[in-house]
UniProtKB/TrEMBL annotation:
It is found in: Cell envelope. This is Sugar ABC transporter substrate-binding protein. It comes from Microbacterium marinilacus. The gene is chvE_1. Its main location: other. Residues 1-37 form the signal peptide. Residues 50-336 form the Periplasmic binding protein domain.
Amino acid sequence: MKRTARTRQGLRFITTTAAVTLALGGLAGCASDSAPAGDGDDSAASDITVGVAMPTETSERWIADGNSVKEQLTDAGYSVDLQYANDDIPTQQQQIEQMITKGADILIVASIDGTALASQLESAADKGIPVIAYDRLINGTEDVNFYVTFDNYTVGVQQAQSLLRGLGYLDENYEETGLEDEKVIELFAGSPDDNNTGFFFDGAMDTLEPYLEDGRLTVGSGQTSMDQVSTLRWDGATAQKRMEDLLTSTYGGGSGQLDGVLAPYDGISRGIITALQNAGYGKTIEEGLPVVSGQDAEIASVKYINDGVQYATIFKDTRKLATQAVEAASAYAEGGEPEANDTETYDNGVKVVPSYLLESDIVVKDNITSLLVDSDYWTEAEIESGVAE
């Protein structure tokens, strides 16, 4: 059954420090059994420790997330225990266990494997510690209290729309151009142990389906199922190897028609692009390089887009995601419940987790400045160099 895009409620983006200070002004105590009662001023925040578990430092995106969450929590007066697990599940399990043992009052968790933390979250629940799932839903447990993320189905829709625009089927307003040309694409998906992967893929495939059905698009390899196209741990080298194998098996090593590739993440996109360039498809789209989508607006890929190498990425402003995580933490800190704008979509197999969904944007060369520079996400110098300062 297809998922359908939902009408979004209006998003509320409040300066984090001010929002949390207001929330903590009436602090009566943390939801954790170990949290001391507040006295009604900002000093109460310093008595609350928030454990923040991030999956890896190998991705530019997760470094930015960790820094944003920590900075905003610290500005609000919380003590913060930030840990990265280097994409190793046992390490993340151990880190969360240590946070609980050391007296964390609230947990914010971006999981590596959404099914691997049930035991740790049960321990948190036993101690009254609320758990906020950060961008990746934690599955198979009732002990996750809230979820902050982007509208992941819509992110998948946008990935496909960007590919269709790059191929000429949609215009700059993402409306049909009437192009009837037949083109060949390949599909890549994210890590099968990440709950978001299915939403991204479903959104993309629902959007591409009419073009696949009427024959304007063909998947050259015939590989269209999640188990065929997924990329474990979102690894760019793994994606590059699969693209190289596809070029050998389906495209004569680089001589066959290939017009575009659906890629769900910038690290995967760059691996795909490397394989295509090495196979002789050209260094830029203008020279014949297939159109490649992406996600996360990583600086190396933003430079690629600016240089005409990668066609598009999806911008998910992690500063706003961090803000929502801190607002959720502040709600629990004062003994309340965070505001949800979705209470139907994210079923983790045990419960529907109340969620707050944020919006995302398609970035192409023409709107890099308005979306990324004007918002102070990246500077012009960083885009020119492809390196974060």
